[in-house]
Amino acid sequence: MRSRHKFQAKKIPLADLEIQAQNAETRGDSKTALKLYEKICKDYKTSSAASEAYFFRGQWYEKDHQFSLAVKMFTKIAKYHPESPFFTQSVEHCFQIANTLQAGIRPRYFGKIPGFRDFDLAIKSYELVVKYAPFSRYAPQALNEIANLQLAAKRYDQAIDALDRIVDLYPDSIEVPSVYLKIAKIYRNLVRGEEYNQGGAVIARRHYREFIVLFPQHLEASFAENAIRELEESIVRSKISLGDFYFNSRYNKKAALKFYRLAIDFAPYTSAADQARSRIAEISGGKKPKSTPVDFLFPSYKPQSDDESVAASNDEFVAAAMVQDRIMDQKDDRVDPVSEKSVTPFVKSKDVFVSDEA
Predict the structure, then answer these.
(1) Neighbouring C-beta atoms of residue 42, cutoff 10 Å
(2) Within 10 A of 82 (CB to CB), how many other CB atoms are there?
(3) Which of the 8 DSSP states describes residue 304?
(4) What is the C-alpha to C-alpha distance for residues 86 and 105, in angstroms, rounded to an integer?
(5) Measured in whole angstroms, how far is the alpha carbon of residue 200 from the centre of its chain?
(6) Is 173 helix (H, G, I), strand (E, B) or coil?
(7) pTM for the whole thing?
(8) Which of 65, 156, 251, 342 has an alpha carbon 20 to 30 Å from 17's alpha carbon atom?
(9) What is the C-alpha separation between 266 and 264, in angstroms, rounded?
């Protein structure tokens, strides 16, 4: 008990610590001021003076390029002293530190040892801005910069998550129009060609259409319309490619016609849809599947009969042929091509329906 009273007796009053720290600042002795502010934060962390102490420490660490410690100090103000007059400035400093790290400025350990570029710390700093100041003007900007950093690291799912949060949480933000275009561009770039899964193209098309509905007078509206047309051409050609595969490689006229008709139904006004109509007319006119010497010597698939009773026994081919189309056209339960659950997001259409049937 005696030692405890002795420790309490040595505790310097808060007013004296503040005066000493301010005097140290005035004479330019930053290190002494830092130690005094550290003592204020330790001994009087619930007082209003602690917020000023945290702010001074944060500024000192930021100037010394000890960015991690600086962010820690500023977020303590946001977390424990939201009523402090230093709250807004602390949020601004966190955002500025994230910008600095994003620009590639290296931190310094202990203020002397150069470190590596730390983009993850930049993301963390932006996230802290969103967490502790969600209603500030910096929050949507921070989410947008998080998306940019995640895109640079090719972490597409995290980038889309950040952009989606802007749309959901800040629908009136000036960032929203560019967010729709950015999400659409991400999904559009994920599609590698018409022979690959077009799920990304379908989602990109949806975002471009929503952009046009919400912002019809935007300067990029015509660009979005052109992008929609290109995406629809790609999706229709993908369906035609599947139809060609079933007609020429599986000798399944019924499945091929299904895909050609689906291509027309999806975007009947496209030039690709005209190709689908031409193929339907050719098959109706008696066109036969392409054959090679290998097919003649080692036939793997027998041409499907036009007889409905015989064709009915081969409905498993048609059912398999419809799977890819359902995946692409579903709006709610769509397979997301950037989901972490998707092991191989871009599978060639031809490889999806490989059958062991002789």
Answers:
(1) 10
(2) 12
(3) P
(4) 25
(5) 13
(6) coil
(7) 0.75
(8) 65
(9) 6
pLDDT (tens digit per residue) in 302-339: 655 555 444 444 455 455 545 545 544 554 343 344 44
Q: How far apart are CA 105 and CA 119, in angstroms?
A: 10
Q: Is the dihedral of CA 213, 216, 220, 221 positive or negative?
A: positive
Beta-strand relationship, 108-109 and 113-114? antiparallel
State the Cα–Cα distance between residues 226 and 166, nearest whole angstrom: 25
Residue 302 CA neighbour count, 13 Å, CB half? 8
Q: Residues with Cβ < 8 Å from 333, sequence gap 6 or more?
A: none
Structure tokens at 116: 């590596």
* 104 phi/psi in degrees, rounded to 5: 95, 10
335 close to 179: Cβ distance less than 8 angstroms: no
Q: Which helix (H) or strand (E) holds 109?
A: strand 108-109
Give the separation between CA 175 and CA 168, rounded to whole angstroms: 12
How far apart are alpha carbons 317 and 301 in whole angstroms? 12
List C-alpha distances in Å: 339 to 120, 160, 161, 188, 346: 21, 10, 11, 15, 12
CB of 204 closer than 8 Å to CB of 229: no
Q: Burial of 303 by CB count in 10 Å (0-12 exposed, 13-18 middle, 19+ buried)? A: middle
User: Are residues 95 and 143 in contact, defined by beta-carbon separation less than 8 angstroms?
Assistant: no
- The Cα–Cα gap between 71 and 348 comes to 46
CA distance 303 to 309: 15
Per residue in 83-93, pLDDT (tens digit) is 999 999 999 99
